[in-house]
Amino acid sequence: MRSKRGTSVAIAAVVAAGLALVVSACGGGSSGGSNNTTSAPAGKTFPTLKVVWGTTDYLDPGLSYRLASWQLFQDVYLGLVVKAHVSCQTDNCAKIEPGLATTTGKVTDGGKDFEFTLRKGIKYSNGEPVKASDFKATIIRDFKLNSPGIGFFSNIVGVDACEANPTKCSDISGIVTDDTAGTVEIKLKTPESDFLYILSIPFTAVVPASTPQKDTENPPPAANGPYYITSYNPSKSFTIKRNPNWKKNEIPAVPNGNPDTIQGTMTDDQSQSAQLVASGQYMYNQNLLPVDRLSFYKQKYPDQIKFFTTPSTYYFFMNTRLAPFDNLKARQAVNYAIDRQQLVNLRGGLGVPTWNFLPPSYPQYKKITPTPYPYDLQKAKQLVQQSGTAGQKVTVYTISDVAVDLSTGEYLQSQLNKIGWKASLKPIAGANYFTIVGNQSTKAQIGFTDWFEDFPYPSDWFNVLLNGERITKVHNNNYGNVDVKSANKEMNRLASLPPDQALSASTNAAWAKVDRTLIVDHAAVAPYLNGILTSFFSSKMNPDCDVFTDNQDDLAQFCLK
Amino acid sequence: MQAAPPPNVFESVATTGQEEFTLDTAAELAAEEGATQIQGKSPWVLAGRRLRRNYVALAFLGVFLLVVVCCLLAPVYVSQVSHIPQNDVRTGAVVVVSGKKVNVISQGGTKIVNGQPVIKFGGVPIGSQWGAAGGKYILGADELGRDVATRLLYGGRNSLFIGITSAAICTILSVVLALVSAYFGGIVDWIISRFFDLIWAFPVVLLGIALGTALSVNGFHHGPINISSGSLWIPIGVISFVFIPYIGRPLRGQVLALRNREFIEAATAQGAGPVRIMFSELLPNVASSVLVLFTLIVANSILTEVGLSFLGAGVQLPNPSWGTMIQEGSRLLSTAPQISLFPGIAIALTVLSLNVFGDGLRDALDPRAKIRIEHG
Amino acid sequence: MGERLLEVKDLNVKFATEDGIVQAVDGLSFELERGRVLGIVGESGSGKSVTAMTLMGLTRGINARFGGEVLYKGTDLLEVSDRDMQNYRGNELGMIFQDPMTSLNPVYRIGAQIAEAIQAHKKVDRRGARARTIELLHQVGIPNPESRVDDFPHQFSGGMRQRAMIAMALSCNPSVLIADEPTTALDVTIQAQIVELVSRLKDDFNSAVIFITHDLGVIADIADEIIVMYAGRVVERGSKRDIFYDPQMPYTWGLLGSIPRLDRPRPERLHTIKGSPPSLINAPEGCKFRPRCPHAFDKCMQEPGLENRVETPGHLDRCWLDVDYKREHRDETISGDSVEAA
Amino acid sequence: MVAYIIRRIFGMLLVLLAVSFIVYFIFIVIPGGDPAQRIAGKVATQANILAIRQKLGLDRSFIVQWYDLVKALFTAKLVSYSNQTNVVGQIKQGLPATFSLAIGAGIIWFGFGVLVGTISAVTAGRISDRAITALALIGISMPVAWLGLILRFFLAGDGGSGVSWFPDGSYVPLTSNPAQWFYHLILPWFTLAVLFIGFYGRVLRSNILDTINEDFVRTAKAKGLSTHRILVKHVLRASLIPIVTLFGLDFASVLGGGAIITETVYNLHGVGWYAAQSIQSEDLPPLMGVTLFGAMFIVVFSLLVDIAYAYLDPRIRLS
């Protein structure tokens, strides 16, 4: 998922941060619900939680692809399995836990057949009971909505008809449900290491079959989680209340929640949202703090701000099919020419320099040592000379309405000019940037991009962004058209393992090797930092209750001082 | 003033017995009278005299010219003083400020301590050095370590170039349209007037941004015109198009008033073609209004360019313009106010001097202030 | 002789302009009794309008200097503060102006502008003021005033507008009515009506009138006493009879000569006074009319005083010529140049 | 008079249609702005991009697309390409902020403009006149964007200058908290009004100086009216007429969401802000909606202004 962070005060941003919800599997997923989850202590309830929120695209779980919505959905729409609502700053990132299903699924047929049985007596907020067929209806509804998430279902048996003509999708043979027994069986074409995670993201969160098959936002669909959204005024405000039909501790992994109602106001103006929380009118700010005011806020409200590294990587793509970046030396020159610490400074310090592609919080992450491309302009200039592409025209693409990304583009353009190319800048509005850059006819040579994981498994990184077999003419995510045959083969192998082998030590080491070869041997991309997020609480809140799972706070577990 | 005439001048005429009191005798009479011949002063000379006496207007004209000259000397400023080209990013650079080494951009840093990132905040550019750093960063640095003073001058070149050129094009276009519509009248006048109404009905800033954004993606490639997306000609085209009614309508009104005056009928009687009448008869009469409107439109188009660039529809980055600098600096207003402050001051000063000079010019050229600026 | 309303003693008015000090009025004196009409005649720039405006206190300004006295019922109007002057203007002294087309506010109804004057001085409510206005319009001869009162100025003809101005000026029955060239902008037929109206209203309102014009013919029958002004000075003063039948000043002859007369043989060409009025900044030496006076001789280099040089006591003039010489030579100027080519 | 109004209304509709045509034409020039691709999202296949294009009717001819767009707008069913929200609904949501800003600022700049213009005219030449003229000129020369930022920095919130007399932008609905509503709008009102106060002041000053020399003012003095009454009833009345026309048009443009920069800088989520948003993402429907909304105000007010002019100045007949 691409990020479009709230921007500077001058231009109210287009859309809020688009961070993916992280679902990570640490340890075997097959055993019954392990109960070492540490949900917030009960008895900390309070009437109202007033939050400042970034604007989002939709509030319909079948359509939205933004963090601002997914962060709310985690306590509203639950899937067969859910991500554990536990803090995961160390290395054991959030785990998969049973959700509406009693277990995390019986995996048979070599990892191609998943079977779940639903818990008894769960009701939606509109009173209807949760039925097994609702799951299949939800997936079909996603196709009917032309949801951006239908790409995740491509490995399910019998989905081809729906993929060909989404709006006419009526049945998926690979999904078999039995309402009386309450069972759901999903058959896959090939084993898929990350399929459990896919079942825990909002696209697969179950909504009533009666939900209209179009964007339903005011109010959004009925919920099966501890909370339900009572009203939503696009880009303005939303209200969330406790789900009357939610039975306490019905699903161990999902906390019952402390606030009775959640009042949200939406704005993309960073300094204004910080103001609202600093003045105590609101209790939590989901937007980033304005970069230039960071030191001011940290020094004035030391214990009300928390920082979290996120599983995100900011990198420059280089189109390997176009001069000059079809030349390895040219790509290496770019890596030498960027000072990663300065790029962190551009973000006011909210970043950790990196030379890897995978984020550090992954078990598959192994820091590439020695540092492959230390900052060295002279070496970069030499490499450009040796590559024989000196003096060529290079166009740097960047996002025009997110100030920090714009400055990053300007930085790269200036550095490329210094090492021998004729670089010019092409800023494009955020809403269209990824569509234009992802279109082969644009012939984008080099440019700014970032990636926030959909789920914490390397397949969401390499298979989507750097796999030669996934290059498409339109809406291509492999902007650099990276096509390393050996790496492609290894990625596909590692991505189609049954769940139990998916996290073995050997698999992790193999993913780390892919990371290393693409960076050191092929300089396929030029990664430079992993993003850091801020959570700003008002003086009334107790920051220690804050559970920051992978890249978002869990509102349900906030508590007062 | 008449000198006192010699006595009995009438007798001398009466007694010489001339038959007829003709024109020659009148001239002769006047010559004898010794009254000083009143040299005909053209309105322009009179205006020039009034303007010369208006010191305030001239002072501000001087300020405007000073600003223009300074901006034109931008390359000299780079080679002699700042030694930092306009788009040269120097985030990691170090500068000697009165003996001490100082980072142009304060260095941040992040350490991971038991899973929690500990952040040392960086990214704050140094403020105005006023020469303490030997010509470097006199007005301070921006977030990418570029020299604000250099960019201020280069930005000035862009903003002034756009402002003046678009005002010139707009004036020429609207003068021609006004003359044609007022002279020919009828259906031509109707069409041109509706054209004026149409642009007039458009919310100016909205039209400007819409055009600016639309064209800035891939430039304008239609027929002979081939403008690349980053060129200045896009904002120029946008601004000159948007302001046409501001000059066109008042001018059309004035030309209409002159249209059926006798001296026009006389010119037509002498067989003058429409072009000659329009440009050698009508135009000189409204030239003073055109000149005054021009100065005011230049001031307005500079302000509009700033607005457009501020919203990202004017000058395209990384080229500086006063508008883009204000926008860039707006994010760092608290830690590095210099980035936004100085362009703002430069704009206010330039536009103020243009307005004051325009005022003085209008008083000199047209003391009875016939021109009504129809729309602010 | 009626009650003495106005006594002007040695009035002089100076204006400081960029090009120097302009001596607009230099030593003007006259008296005005109720019921009498004083005519002031002179070319433009002779100071007659300045005099009228000064009486009304409308020429006050930072660059104006006044001398002499203007006693109105005993108080010197020159000393009265501008605030108090407001009680005199319209109430005691009414004024009519030259160009009726621009003297009325185009965006206000005629009735409103007149009622405004009434309410400014009299304790009258709106309805009373309106009734009074209609009555006034009737008195000045405007047809069906009840409906015309709500018309706008541009709906009135020139003559009718001047009548409305007169109604406005007389609305608070002032003791003195000052008419500053009221007929100049009107065509001849209307002029006669206006003059006749002023004279009739003078009797109805029992007021005095100062009638200023550049055309002697206009005040031929209305004026009791006439003052001829030239270059800011009085050059001749006397009763109507004195001026018309025994003019002593060559300038007056010129004025008389330029009037088309029915009672005399039609001259081939009316007499015209050569040249143009002198500048008031560096005026000619001696008699100001000398440069244009056909009978000027060396003595005229010193300015003659305004004295009574003829039999009738009130008749004053400012000319060195011998009275008999004048009586002998004046006819050729007055009766026009039919006798020989100019 | 009625015939005149009907003819003018017909002219207005024509202008609005032409405006909608121009907006549509401008946006056909943008390449790469194909909304269908953008909506298709990350893993879109060629097939569903075509499906979306069909749903939005983007594959039909130029004229039909324009006609559909305008019809949808007038029947309030127009939906934005980027986030499917109803355009007319969003504009309506922006109305309170835009109207509050426009009406408040309008009152300020008209009131102060007349005050400033009268004072500097009456005291022509003296210090107060020179000072006011200088301030007016400075007011006109201020770039609105910069002025807004500076005011927000120095006076609002903890913009860093430590002084926070005013809240830091954003709009508080009148209905929910009138005191806060007023308090939040003081700075935006002032920022928007400064330009106009200066301009109106100077136009009024030159009008008054012309009118004072008119004959009917001398007549009014001769009637013995007090200077105050003359100034208000005669001089001001005549010289305010051109100001009314100026105010009519400027007020219309601001009411129609013209104060885009002020709304953006102060984060008042009004129509202007919504326009700026939709332009950033090159989203045609909202832009069409806002432009027509703004143009409608301008043409309606220009008719109102002509009628007011005829009422104020009886000499003018509405031909």
Taking Cα atoms only, what radius of gyration of chain B do you get, to the nearest Å? 30 Å
Overall form of chain C: globular
Cα end-to-end separation of chain C: 45 Å
Oligomeric state, counting identical vs distinct chains: heterotetramer
Strand-residue proportion of chain B: 5-15%
The CATH superfamily of the largest domain in chain B is identified as MetI-like
What CATH architecture label of the largest domain in chain B applies? Answer: Orthogonal Bundle
Q: Tell me the strand order in the biggest sheet of chain C.
A: 6-7-8-3-9-10-11
CATH fold-level name of the largest domain in chain B = MetI-like fold
The number of distinct β-strands of chain B equals 6
Major β-sheet of chain C, in short?
Answer: 7 strands, mixed
| N-to-C order of helices and strands of chain C | EEEHEEHEHHHHHEHEEEHHEH
Alpha-carbon distance between the two ends of chain B: 44 Å
Describe the structure.
The complex is a heterotetramer of chains A (561), B (376), C (342) and D (319). Chain B has 376 residues and is mainly α. Chain B has three domains: 12-57, no CATH class; 61-72 and 147-375, MetI-like (MetI-like fold); 89-145, no CATH class. In chain B, 62% of the residues lie in helices and 6% in strands. Chain B is elongated, with a radius of gyration of 30 Å. Chain B starts with 8 loop residues before the first helix and ends in an 11-residue tail after the last helix. Chain C contains eleven helices and eleven strands. Chain D is mainly α. In chain D, helix 5 (87-122) packs across helix 12. The mean pLDDT of chain D is 81. Classes of the chains: A alpha+beta (561), B mainly alpha (376), C alpha/beta (342), D mainly alpha (319).
Keywords:
heterotetramer, A: 561 residues, alpha+beta, 12-stranded mixed beta sheet, 18 strands, 24% helix, B: MetI-like fold, two-stranded antiparallel sheet, two-stranded antiparallel ribbon
